[in-house]
Amino acid sequence: MAGGGVIYSGATDALARLAASTGIPVAETQAGKGSLRFDNPQSLGALGATGTPAANSVAREADLVIGIGTRWSDFTTASHSAFQNPTVKFANINISPFDGAKLAGLSVIGDAREVLSVLTERLADWQVMADFIQAYRELAQRWDATVRTAFATAHTPLSQAQVVGAVESIMGDRDVIVAAAGSLPGDLHKLWRARDPKGYHVEYAYSCMGYEIAAGLGVKMADPSRDVVVMVGDGSYLMLNSELITAISERVKIIVVLVVNHGFASIGNLSESVGVERFGTHFRYRENGSLAGSTLPVDFVKNAESLGAAAYRADTIEELRLALSAARDAKETSVVVVETDPLVNAPDSESWWEVPVAEVSNRASTQAARRRYESDRTRQRELLAPSEPPAAD
Ligand SMILES: Cc1ncc(C[n+]2csc(CCOP(=O)(O)OP(=O)(O)O)c2C)c(N)n1
Ligand SMILES: [Mg+2]
Predict the structure, then answer these.
(1) CATH class for the region spanning 154-339
(2) Same-fold call for 4-142 versus 154-339
(3) With 0-12 CB in 10 A as exposed, 13-18 as middle and 19+ as buried, what is 312?
(4) For the packed helices 130-152 and 160-170, what is the interaxial angle rounded to 10 degrees?
């Protein structure tokens, strides 16, 4: 399990060597995404609530999990439901004793790159079983096919997956995608096919709305040799679009892809999952005391233009590709405004996230959600049994 520590310690090559020589498959957290290239034969992609079914399936059965530079966050462990093998054990390589001790793991305090190099030497004659390799490769290939289908399946308005696919296709191997809040981090975690350890910058620790444009500016200043594409939802954009002005005044070029779905799609999904039917998550007029009036007439193209950015509206996939190419070739900061359907979700992670549901409610939808919640909770594992250190030999 590769966390952000793999990237921060410069351990990506060391990880690839360990994975290649032992056949141990690698899954990634948000911060660890890009630890391996997406097409590395040992890569399973993202793990957990926003993960790939491939990684989640392998995690469910795993008997030993090595956490490298990961905080084992609630999303990563799918609220402690990701690991179902009754004898699963953890070994955590971390520079922080606090994180090393998590999931009752065997704590190995050290730098990820150094520890991985030693581990590769000591495991020189050891490999996982061949049928395991075949099984996880099949799972990874199946997920890859699912991603390609999601990118290519036409919807009107576009699906967010189509937009992610179009953005990915215009970016070079070293370019950086930036995101932070809403439905994008989850979709990017599972769908994005990372090609460089520094190519994926998603803030999902606090998932702070408004981080996106300011972060894109910082990433571009840190390495001007890379193109930076910021993907931001309309909710986040409305919270902090003003940093566009800083990008323009400093002549720091970023490309902003503004995904307009007229509200908080992610919170709408969450609301549905707890039986509250997307209450208050649409950008609509209040009418007769209800929040279900007509859609607010915000013109995002004019808004971006008014701040000094070049702005494009894209309603079809062809218009999106043209706008993205123009933005990529331009010298100045651009905003590509694209409308998407908030009700078309990315392919399922086959995972779970614990969001408690009201125990007492008159709504049938909430009562049904509560029953689902109680049943899902039975999959949680405490993972408190300590992993014994190996006997000295
Ligand atoms: C500063 C801040 N306030 C509130 C939240 C809770 N929150 C998470 S996503 C979200 C809605 C985001 O809407 P948008 O940017 O349009 O993305 P979408 O969900 O539509 O993909 C909210 C309110 C947050 N993450 N950060
Ligand atoms: Mg939105």
Answers:
(1) alpha beta
(2) yes
(3) buried
(4) 100
CATH superfamily of 4-142: TPP-binding domain (3.40.50.1220)
CA 264 – ligand 2 centroid, Å: 4
What is the CA(3)–ligand 1 centre distance, in A? 24
- Report how far residue 5's alpha carbon sits from residue 189's, in angstroms, rounded to the nearest whole number: 17
Ligand 1 atom closest to residue 239's alpha carbon, by position in its atom list: 1
Phi, psi of 287 (to 5 degrees): -135, 125
The encoded tokens of residue 81 equal 């439901």
Structure tokens at 272: 């549905």
Residue 265 Cβ contacting ligand 1 at under 6 Å: yes
**Ligand closest to the CA atom of residue 271:** 1
Which residue type occupies 187? D
Global pTM reads: 0.97
pLDDT digit string (tens) for 78-100?
999 999 999 999 999 999 999 99
For 324, the token pair is: 């993205």
Count of CB atoms situated within 10 Å of the CB of 384: 7
> What's the token pair of residue 254?
């970023």
Which residues on neighbouring strands pair with residue 66, listed in sequence order?
Answer: 91
Residues 272-329 pLDDT 10s:
999 998 999 999 999 998 888 999 999 999 999 999 999 999 999 999 999 999 999 9
Quickly count: other Cβ atoms within 10 Å of residue 322's Cβ: 14
Query: How far is Cα 126 from Cα 376, in angstroms, rounded to an integer?
Result: 37
Q: Is the peptide bond before 157 cis (omega within 30 degrees of 0)?
A: yes
